[in-house]
């Protein structure tokens, strides 16, 4: 049992070492208590579900011709807020890059940032799901 606890602690620490998560995840963990022991898992599960839908919406928006950069930025802004609230650091960094490209009207760069964003989101999702198992 102790070996399992150490493995879980090591996995959790790797999220911070690799800068996948930031201090806001720690704050989220502090909100969990005896009366709500699954709080963090519930919040993260909701985030992953909603962010996956937002990513699909962004992909649809990027496929439109012409691209509505203001609408696209709104989608990215929504993802930025939810990612920041759970401490999804790498996802948040890519969202910020994509938003900058949208403000510049640079679709190619926005698409490249979006591709990286999806990879970071997939990595985050896989690691968090494994962690909560």
From TrEMBL:
<keyword id="KW-0932">Cytokinin signaling pathway</keyword>
<dbReference type="GO" id="GO:0005634">
    <property type="term" value="C:nucleus"/>
</dbReference>
<dbReference type="GO" id="GO:0009927">
    <property type="term" value="F:histidine phosphotransfer kinase activity"/>
</dbReference>
<dbReference type="Pfam" id="PF01627">
    <property type="entry name" value="Hpt"/>
</dbReference>
<keyword id="KW-0963">Cytoplasm</keyword>
<comment type="function">
    <text>Functions as a two-component phosphorelay mediators between cytokinin sensor histidine kinases and response regulators (B-type ARRs). Plays an important role in propagating cytokinin signal transduction.</text>
</comment>
<keyword id="KW-0597">Phosphoprotein</keyword>
<dbReference type="InterPro" id="IPR036641">
    <property type="entry name" value="HPT_dom_sf"/>
</dbReference>
<keyword id="KW-0539">Nucleus</keyword>
<dbReference type="GO" id="GO:0005829">
    <property type="term" value="C:cytosol"/>
</dbReference>
<dbReference type="GO" id="GO:0009736">
    <property type="term" value="P:cytokinin-activated signaling pathway"/>
</dbReference>
<feature type="modified residue" description="Phosphohistidine">
    <location>
        <position position="77"/>
    </location>
</feature>
<keyword id="KW-0007">Acetylation</keyword>
<keyword id="KW-0902">Two-component regulatory system</keyword>
<dbReference type="InterPro" id="IPR045871">
    <property type="entry name" value="AHP1-5/YPD1"/>
</dbReference>
<protein>
    <recommendedName>
        <fullName>Histidine-containing phosphotransfer protein</fullName>
    </recommendedName>
</protein>
<dbReference type="InterPro" id="IPR008207">
    <property type="entry name" value="Sig_transdc_His_kin_Hpt_dom"/>
</dbReference>
<dbReference type="GO" id="GO:0043424">
    <property type="term" value="F:protein histidine kinase binding"/>
</dbReference>
<dbReference type="GO" id="GO:0000160">
    <property type="term" value="P:phosphorelay signal transduction system"/>
</dbReference>
<feature type="domain" description="HPt">
    <location>
        <begin position="36"/>
        <end position="127"/>
    </location>
</feature>
